[in-house]
Write a structure and sequence with these properties.
Elements lengths: L1 H10 L5 H7 L26 E8 L7 E8 L2 E6 L13 E3 L4 E4 L1 E6 L2 H5 L4 E2 L8 H13 L7 E6 L12 H7 L5 E5 L4 E4 L1 H6 L13 E5 L2 E7 L1 H7 L8 H17 L2 E9 L6 H12 L5 E7 L8 H10 L6 E2 L3 E9 L28 H13 L3 E6 L2 H14 L10 E5 L5 H10 L1 E5 L2 H14 L2 H4 L5 H6 L5 E2 L10 H10 L17 H6 L3 H6 L16 E4 L16 E6 L2 E5 L1
Helix pairs in contact: 1-10, 2-9, 10-11, 11-12, 12-13
This protein binds zinc ion (ZN).
Length: 585
């Protein structure tokens, strides 16, 4: 079955696969089954090939400031005072005196490259671009008029939760925009898409089409509404879209990663690898990096659902057959995790809650049965993957936590650092149990900034909104949380996420949501550097310390000593990976 499965995934993306196969990319096996804990290397007395002098904020609480950092072969030999690097330089040592402050390269622990690059050129119908719902319809109408008949009109970032009454973009509304060309609009959460009749026809979806496992083709009185939910259904809708060529994909990946680098990021976790081109996405990343080093290190989370595979075991086998095993790859592109999506989007009212949404009788639902969730988690655990489980509502956290409490003890002692993604709304009890189970949360912190008012006023109510993204409670429970953007759900701005963690101020009305969940500036910065690095198994990054990689950003102000209010305005001048320039503003 596994051979069929791998072949099916490749064949369905025939414009990508040949380019990848022709490159003959092989993936390096993992060393000893785990990433090297290279920060444990001792310092040496070798001569530095690079000396950085100036203002250095190390991110290391034991020695937060430095004035010199000596680097050899991409590793930090010593960091500290001028005296600390004395004797480490020679005639060949290059001196770098950056105009700004040197900080550790920021870590983005959960973002989406593949689905984002697919939509790079799509029309923006975000709330920022379209402040009123009518604007969405006008922008789509203009886009349809500019598109030749028969060709797709594609738009992204639609977010009904930010408009009064949470209007859906139904097939009937979109049919009034155009009947003679397919229209597909992607929700900002990426958990929903909206289609007109022509797009449903183009995808071969009819009122009689069976519901896909884990996805929803919404119907009213037996008729498709054009609204589809969750990845399996969205994938069906997009199945006959013109596929990007390998060259388009390559350009798109660099463009996306350059956006990350421009925000000071030097390492990121791709949170759903395999959605666009199946298992060949890994080879493609290696091929691109081989041709020219990528501007950001990429850690991948292999998606547990692949086109053409019927069961989680088949998916696991497909990854293995492609040579993608835990911690395989190299320092630039490494496969690290197994991604499972337990529920939907809270702002899309498809997150799974213990209590109903405001104005509804339902609190959403899980994408799995208890048995099938255990099956998909086991498929990853059996192969030694770090689990990365999307859990948005408090019922989804409970559902996944019960499974984790049952399955993880059977795996014995390990250092896999399993994660719950978003863990947006949690109870005190759940945070304590996550800590006991060995599962840490990664928060989409700007849920608070962008959607906090909608959660409080129209979607969840004040009690549950106050339990949104509980960073302070997570620390109190002994957890080691990180902050992420979920790009392109929000833009990649780790320092803005950290600012939200400190202030918890809402974009809509500037009030503070759950002030008791505010954290210190040092905690917030750790959640986008050292702790985020820990969560992506990058112990050789996250702080500027001897033995670690010389991954750093040059910025115009030291976040550790500046007012958090100003963090999102800190300009990034450049980033370096292994002491070599990766991005220049
Ligand atoms: Zn995500």
């Amino acid at each position: 079955m596994s051979d069929t499965c791998t072949a099916a995934a490749a064949l369905s993306h025939d414009q990508l696969a040949p380019a990848i196969a022709a490159a003959g990319v092989t993936i390096a096996p993992a060393h000893h089954g785990a990433p090297s804990r290279s920060d444990e290397r001792g310092t040496t007395t070798a001569t530095a090939d690079l000396l950085i002098v100036g203002r250095i904020a190390t991110g290391d609480p034991a020695a937060p400031r430095a004035e010199a950092m000596a680097v050899r072969d991409g590793r930090i030999l010593a960091v500290g005072s001028a005296a600390d690097v004395d004797g480490l330089t020679g005639p060949a040592t290059k001196i770098l005196s950056p105009d700004g402050v040197v900080i550790p390269g920021l870590i983005e622990p959960h973002a989406h490259i593949w689905v984002s690059l697919l939509t790079l050129e799509w029309t923006d119908v975000s709330h920022a671009a379209c402040p009123r719902f009518d604007d969405v319809v006008s922008v789509l109408t203009a886009a349809a008029q500019a598109t030749p008949a028969g060709q797709y009109v594609l738009a992204k970032l639609f977010d009904p939760s930010l408009y009064p009454g949470e209007p859906a973009l139904t097939r009937d509304i979109l049919d009034r925009v155009a009947l003679d060309r397919p229209i597909v609009v992607l929700n900002a959460s990426m958990h929903f898409a909206y289609a007109n009749s022509a797009a449903l026809d183009a995808a071969g979806i009819t009122d009689a089409t069976p519901q896909p496992t884990g996805g929803t083709l919404e119907k009213r009185d037996g008729r498709l509404t054009g609204v589809v939910g969750e990845s399996p259904a969205v994938t069906m809708l997009l199945a006959n879209l013109p596929r990007p060529t390998a060259a388009d994909v390559g350009r798109g990946i660099r463009q996306v990663l350059n956006e990350f680098a421009a925000a000071g990021v030097t390492s990121m976790r791709e949170a759903m690898t395999g959605t666009l081109a199946g298992v060949s996405e890994i080879a493609m990343l290696h091929q691109l990096n081989g041709a020219e080093r990528l501007p950001v290190r990429v850690s991948t989370a292999q998606f547990s659902s692949l086109s053409g595979c019927a069961t989680p075991a088949e998916v696991a086998q497909a990854w293995k057959a492609a040579g993608v095993t835990p911690f395989s790859g190299d320092a630039m592109v490494r496969a690290d995790a197994w991604k499972v999506v337990a529920d939907g989007s809270n702002q899309g009212r498809s997150g799974y809650f213990l209590q109903p949404y405001l104005g509804e009788t339902s609190g959403g639902h899980a994408n799995w049965t208890p048995e099938s969730l255990r099956e998909v988690m086991r498929a990853g655990l059996d192969d030694g993957w770090q689990l990365m489980i999307h859990t948005n509502g408090d019922a989804a956290v409970e559902f996944a936590l019960q499974a984790a409490e049952e399955l993880l003890p059977r795996c014995g002692q390990n250092d896999l650092r399993h994660r719950f993604e978003h863990a947006s709304v949690t109870t005190d009890d759940q945070l304590v149990r996550m800590s006991a189970a060995g599962v840490s949360p990664s928060f989409l912190m700007d849920h608070v900034y962008y959607w906090g008012a909608a959660f409080r006023d129209t979607i969840l109510g004040p009690e549950r909104a106050a339990r949104l993204d509980r960073l302070a409670s997570a620390y109190r429970a002994g957890l080691r949380p990180s902050l992420h953007s979920d790009y392109n759900v929000t833009t990649v701005r780790p320092l803005r996420s950290a600012r939200t963690a400190v202030l918890r101020r809402l974009e809509a009305d500037a009030t503070v949501l759950a002030p008791e969940e505010r954290v210190s500036p040092a905690q917030a910065l750790s959640a986008i550097t050292a702790d985020a690095a820990w969560q992506i198994h990058a112990d050789d990054r996250g702080t500027l310390s001897a033995g670690r990689r010389a991954d750093f950003a040059v910025v115009d102000s030291d976040p550790w000593t500046s007012d958090p209010e100003s963090w999102d305005r800190i300009a990034v001048h450049a980033t370096y990976i292994d002491g070599v320039p990766a991005f220049t503003a």
